[in-house]
TrEMBL record:
Gene3D superfamilies: ABC transporter type 1, transmembrane domain, P-loop containing nucleotide triphosphate hydrolases. It comes from Eleusine coracana subsp. coracana. PROSITE patterns: ABC_TM1F, ABC_TRANSPORTER_1, ABC_TRANSPORTER_2. The keyword Repressor does not apply. This is ABC transporter C family member 10. The chain crosses the membrane at residues 91-110, 130-151, 163-184, 409-435, 503-524, 916-938, 1017-1035.
């Protein structure tokens, strides 16, 4: 008990000494003492019990008295917290300051110790920086000095002179300001702020680009997202998104409408962060504690309806407070969800970049474990799953926090009966634990099955032409269906456990309510409107987080499995030893291999090359020959460092490599390959590579796009484009791997004379060839057999002393009948006619007359089949399937996400509208606000969906482009490394990642834009309902009705937002269903079997083929490729079809198999028009050896006979010279190839 007598004015000393500077602190102390004592005495009347306020000995010791005695706790607490002179306000400030001090101090200690050096710890960047540090430091010292003086005065004089909360708040303010001032003075790098481009990374994966990157470019003149420069209000309200959504409402959005992402969100910057520390980027957003003000306000509102208000207009104040709380809750939650989604996007981008960078340096053994289909899955599926993780990760701990706070409120409402709620929650979580482990197992098995199925699908699509030629489509379709059934088994197991989890957690709120009220009944806890609806409102607010737990668990499990797979890939072995070094002209021996052995799988016991000794002099021409499988191509790979060296020493300088694979892009892009255009050199390159007429015949000249694996070029054209690419680089060393295998003899001779012996006359050349006619002019010939170099000598020496070489030359003579190979050695200059020169100039001039469209192939793939001219091969129609591996990502969404999104959307919508219905029944006046609000909400949602759907469609198409680029890069990895194009291709990949990230970024930002506006409207409805209740006379509504109305109203926000979120999620995911459906609607070929037109079982008996005025074109609006051919091939005759590259030879063969249907005329085989019978009946009766060699993953037996129709026949293997090779295998025909 304290003495409440106030000191009279005459009691205050009036001595002049009080006014002296020395006595000023005593005067201040006296005034503060009077204020504190008056504050203390005014709160506690004599004899007032402490139990009715906020008791506790610690509050007594800090504040001098209990707080909020005989007052409504909620109203008093609000007043105390926001009054800067009260003890509660000081305690809040002290707590915040101490939390800031602890976090900042720990961060500084960890960072300073981690930096490893205290030198140059402090850095001042500008006078303004110095002034800010000085100001904060001085202010902190002032606060600290005042606090210490007040504390000393209390201890020296009277303990009640300054209560502890006065000097504690000053001390905490001083310490925090001083620490902040110190933190501002420390160098940014010590605190972990990255300085772009300042670090160097040793490992290839951890090495930034050496060239100018996206992050280094100036954004001036580029349409950058308004988010990057938005103000605080625009950021908080998503106002910066209005222009894009308006454009999307007025017209369908296109990729060009997407502003570029800000520098922070671009893949390159995120990749650099990833390189520095994989898991350092973490976010600690504000959680949803603001929602728990709502039950407390509800309790106060019910007390007002009972006539227990503490002041006259408390009802209006509570209605206003409810509106403010709901608006603050909406702002915080929307920013939280948006920023976690943004973090997920950044994680996804950096993982996509890391995966691409990793595949550029993947070793040969690692490629055997990680196929191209799997790597595609890592980017299109796994990285996306991990990108969803940050959004759900924070919900794991915030849900726990919300449950704990809810339990505290429940304890306040129903006392110890809360234990029943806790018991039910614990039982629910424990019951879910074993299911979570099963889910993890099933998810892992599902992803493994998906990889196998995707690999089979990719293999089938890549080799679809071969499948059609051999009529194997049905068999491979059944094979994929079997794999899909195995995948479906694990999918069903995973989804059933997930459904059980959903049922368990969705029913838990009902179980919690029943158990709690039953416990209240047993324990005789009094229940009234106040505590019952406080309980109900609290439970309904945490109901949505509880019901989201199954989704969260599923997402976390999927992310964990995906993360494990990606980590395993990123840890895979790389091409560690860099054998290629910078070339110097004065180097006499650019390639030196000394007693080396090489192995594809890094196993010394399984060598592909052994005991290799090779020294190549500058300018020397070396030919490599030998039987098939002798190791010729492997030797070139060894010189490039593409195969693991198990022993010996190797030194190889940078070389240009002619590979057996190719990349997509235009013809010009493939020739320049990142180099700048030199018109003269470019023209000479085209002439040397015999590409003049080919470019003339292509529809857009050298701007014609090349499809995947060059599907729209003939074999000879592919080879010559690659030769042109190598020649244009003007390197010093050239490795040529059988460059003349797909061209006719005349073209091969021209290429050899003009290209190898002419353009490369002063270059170092290693040429793999089977054409022995060219060997006499080489300085040295390597003869290889079984992975060894058996002889190395000039042509004449080998011919005289090496029996193996003599056999090779004689076998070639027997085949082609050439008698004098020595004459080939003379270098015959090829005459380039004036006509050809004019043709190339005319071809280039036509490009300007007929500009190529930006998406030549895509338009043809989606709308029509084929291309113009004889050079566009008949299998370009299948490029749409091959060029969209993204179907795996869409199918994953359809399998895992769409079913639950559909169910959750319906249930959430029913829940939201039932809450709105209850609110309308109880307070029908709210309908005047609800009906317009619902109409506006529907209009807003439609306004949003017009843009959101297009954004998701653009996201799908850009993801396809990203996957296509990745697939091409995997196929052309050796070429890219040989031409030192890793940085350029990586930069292109980063650009595609950003293009794909943009629509996704704007999509989830648009979702938050919509929900924030809906939440604001709901807050208006709820506050208006509360205002109506407060406006009506007391007793108009019973406390029960008031409690029910407001409890449902408070949960309306959560349920309505959840409903909109689920609907938007479903609408976005339906886009994947649309994309999968597009594949199903692709126009098919003719029927496989026509029952009424089936040929006889032994057809064709004779084999007479008759062509009658056969005309072929690849599109309806394109010119004819075959112009009315009429001829007859008698049965049993052997017919040779010859002609220059692109003359229509392959087209004629394709017409026989109906890969392209005749535009006119007929093809008759043994009196049957082939267009009248089914495709399977036709193709299964014809045999063909395709131009491109094709192998499938599996055993040797499976590759020889995929359908399993024939028995083992040794004579077949012997005739194909495979018998010895198969017998050397450990398992013979059952050996598995990779």
């Amino acid at each position: 008990m304290c003495n409440c007598r106030r000191r009279r004015p005459q009691d205050v000393p009036t001595s002049k000494a009080v006014r002296t500077p020395a006595a000023a602190p005593h005067a201040i102390a006296e005034c503060l003492s009077l204020a504190v004592r008056h504050e203390t005495c005014s709160r506690t009347a004599p004899g007032a019990p402490h139990a009715e306020g906020v008791p506790g000995s610690w509050i007594m010791s800090l504040c001098g008295s209990p707080v909020c005695v005989k007052q409504a706790v909620v109203v008093c607490a609000l007043k105390e917290f926001f009054d800067s002179s009260t003890c509660m306000n000081h305690l809040l400030v002290i707590g915040i300051n101490m939390l800031l001090v602890i976090i900042l101090a720990l961060h500084l200690v960890v960072r300073v110790l981690k930096s490893g050096s205290l030198q140059q710890l402090v850095m001042l960047n500008s006078p303004l920086h110095f002034a800010a540090i000085l100001f904060h430091g001085c202010l902190g010292l002032a606060y600290l000095g005042l606090g210490l003086w007040m504390m000393g005065s209390s201890f020296d004089h009277d303990a009640s002179l300054y209560l502890p909360h006065w000097w504690l708040v000053n001390l905490s303010q001083g310490i925090s300001l001083i620490l902040i001032s110190f933190a501002f003075s420390i160098q940014a790098r010590v605190l972990g702020v990255r300085n772009d481009g300042s670090e160097r990374f040793e490992n290839a994966l951890y090495k930034p680009l050496n060239t100018e990157t996206v992050a280094d470019k100036d954004d001036s003149g580029i349409h950058v997202t308004p988010f990057a420069k938005a103000g605080v209000f625009s950021l908080m309200s998503f106002w910066w998104l209005n222009p894009l959504i308006k454009v999307g409402y007025e017209k369908p959005l296109e990729e060009k409408d997407m502003p570029l992402l800000g520098a922070t969100d671009r893949a390159y910057n995120q990749y650099l962060i990833f390189l520095e520390q994989l898991n350092s980027k973490r976010q600690s957003p504000n959680s949803n504690q603001s929602v728990f003000w709502s039950p407390l306000i509800l309790k106060a509102f019910i007390n007002v309806s009972l006539g227990k208000g503490t002041f006259k207009y408390e009802g209006y104040a509570l209605a206003a407070a409810m509106f403010v709380c709901k608006c603050c809750e909406s702002l915080s939650q929307r920013q939280w969800y948006f920023r976690t989604r943004r973090i997920g996007l950044q994680v996804r981008s950096c993982l996509s970049a890391a995966i691409y960078k990793k595949q550029q340096n993947l070793s040969s053994s690692a490629k055997m474990k990680h196929s191209s289909g799997q790597i595609m899955n890592y980017v299109t599926v796994d990285a996306y799953r991990i990108g969803e993780f940050p959004y759900n990760f924070h919900q794991t701990w915030t849900t726990i926090v919300q449950l704990c706070m809810a339990l505290v409120i429940l304890y306040n409402a129903v006392g110890l009966a809360m234990i029943a709620s806790l018991f039910v929650i614990i039982i629910t979580v424990l019951g879910n634990a074993p299911l979570a482990k099963l889910q993890h197992k099933f998810q892992r098995k599902l992803m493994e099955a998906q990889d196998v199925r995707l690999k089979a699908m990719s293999e089938s699509l890549i080799h679809m032409k071969v499948l059609k030629l051999y009529a194997w489509e049905t068999h491979f379709k059944k094979r994929i269906e079997v794999l899909r059934e195995d995948e479906y088994k694990w999918l069903l197991a995973f989804q059933l456990r997930r459904a059980y989890n959903s049922f368990l957690f969705w029913s838990s709120p009902v179980l919690v309510s029943a158990a709690t009220f039953l416990t209240c009944y047993i324990m005789k806890v009094p229940l009234d409107a106040s505590n019952v609806f406080t309980f109900v409102a609290t439970l309904r607010l945490v109901q949505t987080p509880i019901r989201q737990i199954p989704d969260i668990i599923g997402t976390v499990i999927q992310a964990k499995v995906a993360f494990t797979r990606i980590v395993k890939f990123l840890d895979a072995p790389e091409l560690t030893e860099q054998v290629r070094k910078k070339y110097h002209v004065e180097t006499e021996y650019p390639i030196v291999i000394n007693t080396c052995s090489f192995s594809w799988d890094e196993n010394p016991s399984k060598t592909a090359l052994k005991n290799i000794n090779l020294v190549v002099r500058t300018g020397e021409k070396v030919a490599i020959c030998g039987e098939v499988g002798s190791g010729k191509s492997t030797l070139l790979a060894a010189a490039l460092g593409e195969i693991s060296k198990t022993e010996g020493t190797l030194r190889s300088l940078v070389a240009n490599f002619f590979p057996k694979n190719r990349c997509a892009g235009t013809v010009q892009d493939n020739i320049l390959f990142g180099s700048s255009m030199d018109e003269k050199r470019y023209q000479e390159t085209l002439l040397k590579c015999s590409l003049v007429k080919d470019l003339q015949n292509l529809p857009y000249g050298d701007c014609t796009q090349i499809g995947e694996r060059g599907v729209n070029l003939s074999g000879g054209q592919k080879q010559r484009v690659q030769l042109a690419r190598a020649l244009y680089q003007n390197a010093d060393i050239y490795l040529l791997d059988d460059p003349f295998s797909a061209v006719d003899a005349h073209t091969a001779t021209n290429l050899f004379n003009e290209y190898v012996m002419g353009a490369l006359s002063d270059k170092t050349v290693l040429l793999v060839t089977h054409q022995v006619d060219f060997l006499p002019v080489f300085d040295c010939i390597l003869l290889m057999s079984d992975g060894e170099i058996i002889r190395c000598a000039p042509y004449q020496d080998l011919l005289a002393h090496c029996q193996e070489f003599q056999n090779l030359v004689n076998a070639h003579k027997d085949i082609i009948g050439i008698s004098d190979t020595n004459d080939i050695g003379s270098h015959r200059a090829m005459e380039i006619t004036t006509e050809e020169k004019t043709e190339i100039r005319g071809s280039r001039s036509r490009k300007h007359v007929k500009p190529p469209p930006a998406d030549q192939l895509i338009k043809q793939e989606e709308r029509e089949m084929g291309d113009t001219g004889a050079q566009i091969s008949q299998n370009s129609w299948m490029a749409a399937n091959v060029q969209n591996p993204n179907v795996s990502s869409d199918l994953s969404i359809v399998d895992l996400d769409v079913p639950f999104a559909f169910v959750f959307s319906i249930s959430a919508s029913l829940n939201a509208y039932s809450n709105l219905g209850v609110l309308s029944v109880v307070t029908w006046q709210v309908l005047f606000v609800c009906v317009p609000m619902i109409c506006l909400a529907i209009k807003l949602q439609r306004y949003y969906l017009t843009s959101a759907k297009e954004l998701m469609r653009i996201n799908g198409t850009t993801k396809s482009a990203l996957a296509n680029h990745l697939g091409e890069s995997i196929l052309g990895a050796v070429t890219i490394r040989a031409f030192n194009g890793e940085d350029r291709f990586f930069a292109e990949s980063l650009e595609l990642v950003d293009k794909n990230a943009g629509p996704y970024f704007y999509n989830f930002a648009a979702t938050e834009w919509l929900i924030q506006r809906l939440e604001t409207m709901i807050a208006v409805v709820l506050s208006f309902s509360a205002f109506i209740m407060a406006l009506l006379p007391a007793g108009t509504f019973s406390p029960g009705f008031v409690g029910m109305a407001l409890s449902y109203g408070l949960s309306l926000n959560v349920s309505f937002v959840s409903s909109i979120q689920k609907q938007c999620t479903l609408a976005n995911q339906i886009i994947s269903v649309e994309r999968v459906n597009q594949y199903m609607d692709i126009q098919s070929e003719a029927a496989e079997v026509i029952e009424e037109k089936r040929p006889a079982p032994d057809w064709p008996q004779v084999g007479t083929v008759e062509l009658r005025d056969l005309k072929i074109r690849y599109r309806k609006d394109s010119p004819l490729v075959l112009h009315g051919i009429t001829c007859t091939f008698e049965g049993g005759d052997k017919i040779g079809i010859v002609g220059r590259t692109g003359s229509g030879k392959t087209t004629l063969i394709g017409a026989l198999f109906r890969l392209v249907e005749p535009a006119g005329g007929k093809i008759i085989i043994d009196s049957i028009d082939i267009t009248t019978i089914g495709l399977h009946d036709l193709r299964s009766r014809l045999g063909i050896i395709p131009q491109d060699p094709t192998l499938f993953q599996g055993t040797v037996r499976y590759n020889l006979d995929p359908l399993g129709q024939f028995s083992d026949k040794r004579e077949v293997l012997d005739k194909c010279q495979l018998l010895e090779a198969v017998q050397e295998k450990e398992n013979g025909l059952d050996s598995i190839g990779r």
